[in-house]
Specification:
Chain A is built from 14 helices and no strands. With 305 residues, chain A is mainly α. Chain A has two domains: 85 residues, no CATH class; 215 residues, MetI-like (MetI-like fold, Orthogonal Bundle), CATH 1.10.3720.10. Chain B is α/β, with parallel strands linked by helices and 331 residues long. In chain B, 31% of the residues lie in helices and 22% in strands. Chain B is built from 13 helices and twelve strands. The mean pLDDT of chain B is 91. Chain C has one domain: 3-Layer(aba) Sandwich (Rossmann fold), CATH 3.40.50.300. Chain C contains eleven helices and twelve strands. In chain C, α4 crosses α5 and α6 runs parallel beside α7. The radius of gyration of chain C is 21 Å and the shape is globular. Chains A and B meet through α9, α10 and α14 of A and α3 and α5 of B.
Chain lengths: 305, 331, 332
């Protein structure tokens, strides 16, 4: 088990290193970054001066080393738009994003797994039919429309929840619901199909033969075996929820990373984009590492080979 | 001795298990009668689709729903008709009074739980833990001769060899000291030398009062292991009796043909006796005797009417023209 | 006598196959390998059947895959009609592939479900002999007739057949290239008992009619003995005994062969096995025992057996055995 953890950790570190190269290269490949830094009316001599100031006249490997050294010190460059260090800007937005994504995840996993399990237990039953309709609705209704409806119904009319801001948990409910619905549908479908596969297995038959209660058969023997695809999807959804919540963040005025990143792209604020991409990638690697550890726990065969 | 003790351990009467599919009704088990005594090993032989596995699932009332249904019959275990029990009461029978071993030990053990957990599960469910559960689990594993039982509790199924996994299955089955053991082709996935070891284990387990219904397609296993044999064809038992009687003087042409078609080790090389044709279509079994399209001596009577079970005092058979004497199938 | 009459059709010489496992980070160490086949040699004569028996892990299927060029050997060679097969490229390779065909255990997974019988059986004759149109149709119905299926079935799909019929179809496809040898890998073990005899008899008929040679791989000793001329017994990748089919039961010499024979359940309640044939299980091919590979389970093992690998020696015409106790004192 320890060997497995070390292996995965090593792989994660190598991945992060790879990401640093890709992020570095992207900025260089998308044109001369200097042209973004200098005002259009700058003279040739001024351009060269700035180039030297940013060490952009050095060969690429050396530039990369400088960049890595900066990264290791936590220096990701300065945002062009805000004229502040880029990293704190991104990190300031991170907790709000994580909070929103986690809440959305709790909603989608809670509802999705429950409905999926119940659907698989009785294919064609009322939960299955309701779940299918729910899933279809979830994947066909656009988030902005759902968000507006939620605001109108629960915010404006019933006044149960505030419609914007991020101070208390009550602020979280509506955006999380809007954001989580889409992935709830996906979670329902994957849980249903994974469970149907597993419920066909011989060890499920053996569990019934032993005299176990059907509820125990499903919650103990089936769900644990069906969990690998569910966890895989959940981790991908989680990453997508962190970075892809732009529309939700906009509608509910939620100060998350999605909006920061989109704004930075439109403003051609390259250092900020780079930093945000890097932080998002780290989150991705970290999530995957956590999921790998979870796999090892969920399926002992993975950790032992 | 009371009447209940003299009665057989298991008595199955006129069992009919049908599957209602979109293509029609499959009469998987169609009027089956047999008994299993305490301490007896009864072989249930048949080919794929003959209904032998569905007999076992019917006894446990675990026929796949909603397509499968037990349409009629009685399954009496020590005086209690299992088909009259509620689902809740049936759950206490499963695993405690009646246990079952499945064919493929790898896919029948849950890959994500330790062997100790899975062996102890039935004990926990049925509250049969007097004293230490761990000791009981180790005891069950030792009874099926798993070396180093106490250290292997925390291992997972994939860390066991095929033969050892099937022993784990046996340990699960006997953990609650059942009265009846159903074994559904338990050695089909095993090598011959490992199979021989497993058959030896079966003989040991029945030493007490355990009755075993052993399902197989292998006539060799039946001859080596069983006291009595039931031969199934297309949902019906076509012949039953002691293995000596049935193997040495079969009355039903199907039994005789089956025995003659199996190559025997050490016999002279010869052209094998072959049963012509294909097993019947389960959706539309032939009218009359179900074996008549493949039977070398079928006549109009066989084509017209289904023979009822008849007995000569030793062997019970379903045939209008039972054979007399040794394995003589006249083509 | 001509030269071809003396050369056996298939010659397997010192064939060895090891499957190396993934290298660990310790590059200085030899990576562990599964020793599937170790220096196995045998020959198959024209028109004869050679049966390879052994339990799982014996290497019998690996040998079949090597002969079918589905694996590359670690060492050793296989000659077909005198030609070494592993270096073959281009035209000789294609010729070999059409001369040696295979029938596998599971007939349902070896057909494309969307191809009709006429396409399945017509494909190879078209490819190898350029048969088209009427000639191809005639060939297809001829093949169906050969394997005992009605020619009218040419328009059907594989799923419309029963298991036994599908195996007949697999045999028809195998002989569609006019091969000289078939590799039969567990050809009847997935079939019902009442169907096995049909297929085994069909194979015997085809062998006579077409003069085929068979390499038969099976775990069922009774079937192998019933069908084969020569039998090779494999244990953990090693050929431990080879003898004519009749001598296998009459005069088995290797303790493993004897154990295997006595483990086979005989379908006769009057001949019940008395003692357990073997204790324990087959060791891992990753780490086979030193000396004789069988010594860990052998009831007769001597100290010498753990130290020294016994060579395969000829004890009678066509009868070879690899055991330190042979000849002479093998009887317990």
């Amino acid at each position: 088990m320890i060997r497995y953890i070390l292996q995965r950790l090593g792989q994660s570190i190598i991945t992060v290193w790879g990401i640093s190269i890709v992020v570095f290269m992207l900025a260089r490949l998308s044109g001369d970054p200097l042209l973004l830094l200098v005002p259009p009316e700058a003279t040739k001599a001024e351009v060269e001066q700035i180039r030297r100031a940013y060490s952009l006249d050095k060969p690429l490997p050396q530039q990369y080393l400088t960049y890595v050294r900066g990264v290791l010190r936590g220096d990701f460059g300065t945002s062009l738009r805000f004229n502040e260090p880029a990293l704190p800007l991104v990190l300031k937005r991170l907790p709000a994003s994580l909070r929103l994504a986690s809440a959305a995840m709790v909603i989608s996993a809670g509802i999705g797994i429950t409905v999926g399990v119940l659907s698989a237990a009785r294919p064609g039953g009322w939960v299955d039919r309701f779940g299918k309709a729910f899933a279809m609705l979830g994947q066909s209704v656009p988030v902005f429309w759902l968000g507006i409806i939620l605001i109108l119904v629960f915010g404006v009319r019933l006044r149960w929840f505030p419609t914007s801001g991020s101070e208390t948990w009550r602020h979280l409910v509506l955006p999380a619901a809007a954001l989580g619905w889409y992935s709830t549908a996906a979670m329902t479908r994957i849980t249903r199909s994974a469970m149907l596969d597993v419920l066909d297995a011989d060890y499920i038959r053996l569990a019934h033969i032993k005299g176990l209660h059907p509820f125990k058969v499903i919650t103990k023997h089936a769900l644990r075996n069906a969990s690998i695809p569910i966890v895989t999807l959940a981790s991908l959804q989680f990453i997508a929820l962190i970075n892809g919540a732009v529309v939700t963040e906009t509608i509910f005025a939620w100060p998350g990373m999605g909006r920061l990143m989109v704004d930075a792209v439109f403003a051609r604020d390259f250092p900020l984009v780079q930093t945000a991409v890097f932080v998002a990638s780290i989150l991705f690697v970290a999530t995957n590492f956590a999921v790998d550890l979870l796999y090892g726990y969920l399926n002992p065969r993975i950790a032992y080979t | 001795m009371t009447a209940a003790e003299r009665a057989p351990l298991l008595q199955v009467r006129d069992l009919r298990t049908y599957f209602y599919t979109r293509a029609g009704v499959v009469k998987a088990v169609d009027g089956v009668d047999f008994a299993v005594q305490r301490g007896e090993i009864v072989g249930l032989v048949g080919e794929s689709g003959s209904g032998k596995s569905n007999v076992c699932l019917s006894i446990l009332n675990l026929v796949p729903k909603p397509a499968g249904r037990i349409v009629s019959g009685e399954i009496v275990l020590e005086g209690t008709n299992l088909l009259g029990l509620s689902e809740r009461a049936m759950r206490t029978v499963r695993g405690r009074d009646v246990a079952m071993i499945l064919q493929d030990p790898l896919s029948s053990l849950n890959p994500v739980f330790t062997v100790g957990d899975q062996v102890g599960e039935a004990l926990r469910v049925h509250g049969r833990v007097s004293g230490d559960l761990r000791e009981r689990v180790i005891g069950a594993l030792q009874k099926v001769h798993i070396p180093g039982a106490s250290t292997r509790l925390r291992d997972y199924p994939h860390q066991f060899s095929g033969g050892m996994r099937q022993r784990v299955m046996a340990a699960i089955a006997i953990s609650c000291a059942p009265k009846l053991l159903l074994a559904d082709e338990p050695t089909t996935a095993l090598d011959v030398t490992i199979q021989a070891q497993f058959l030896q284990l079966m003989r040991e387990l029945r030493e007490g009062d355990l009755g075993i219904l052993y399902v197989t397609h292998d006539l060799g296993v039946v001859a080596q292991l069983c006291d009595r044999v039931l031969v199934m064809y297309a949902g019906q038992i076509v012949e039953s009796g002691t293995v000596e009687q049935v193997f040495h003087a079969p009355r039903h042409p199907y039994t005789a043909a089956l025995i003659s078609s199996v190559p025997v080790l050490g016999a002279k090389r010869r052209r094998l006796y072959q049963i012509e044709g294909q097993p019947p279509n389960p959706l539309a079994p032939p009218a009359g005797c179900r074996f008549h399209p493949r039977c070398p001596q079928a006549d109009d009577q066989c084509r017209a009417a289904m023979p009822e079970p008849a007995t000569d005092g030793n062997v019970t058979y379903r045939c209008w023209h039972p054979l007399n004497g040794r394995l003589s199938v006249t083509p | 006598m001509t030269q071809t009459a003396i050369t056996p059709l298939l010659e397997v010489n010192q064939l060895t196959k090891r499957f190396p496992l993934r290298r660990s980070l310790a590059l200085w160490r030899e990576p562990p390998a599964v020793r599937a086949v170790e220096q196995v040699s045998f020959q198959i004569n024209e028109g004869a059947t050679y049966g390879l028996v052994g339990e799982s892990g014996s290497g019998k299927s690996t040998i079949a895959r090597l002969v079918l060029l589905l694996e590359k050997p670690t060492a050793g060679e296989v000659r077909f009609a005198g030609e070494s097969i592993f270096p073959m490229r281009g035209r000789p390779l294609r010729a070999y592939r059409s001369r040696v065909q295979a029938v596998f255990q599971d007939p349902s997974s070896s057909f494309s479900p969307r191809m009709r019988v006429s396409e399945i059986l017509g494909e190879l004759p078209m490819l190898h002999q350029g048969l088209r149109g009427q000639a191809r149709r005639e060939r297809v119905s001829g093949l169906l007739e050969l394997v005992g299926l009605p020619p009218a079935y040419a328009g059907r799909f594989p799923h419309e057949f029963s298991g036994g019929q599908r195996q007949r179809l697999a045999i028809a496809r195998a002989i569609s290239t006019n091969p000289r040898m078939l590799v039969l890998d567990e050809p009847v073990s997935a079939l019902d008992v009442s169907i096995r005899a049909q297929v085994l008899n069909l194979l015997a008929d085809l062998q006579q009619q077409l003069g085929l040679s068979y390499l038969l791989i099976a775990h069922d000793l009774a079937i192998v003995q019933q069908v084969s001329d020569m039998i090779g017994v494999l244990y953990l990748g090693h050929l431990v005994e080879e003898c004519p089919s009749e001598e296998l039961t009459a005069q088995p010499l290797h303790p493993y062969t004897r154990a295997l024979l006595s483990a086979v359940p005989v379908p006769d309640p009057a001949r019940r096995a008395k003692a357990l044939p073997l204790q324990g299980e087959i060791p891992s091919a990753l780490d086979p025992p030193p000396g004789c590979v069988f010594h860990t389970r052998c009831p007769l093992a001597l100290p010498r057996c753990a130290a020294e690998e016994p060579p395969l020696i000829t004890v009678a015409p066509h009868h070879q055995v690899a055991c330190h106790l042979v000849p002479g004192q093998v009887s317990p």
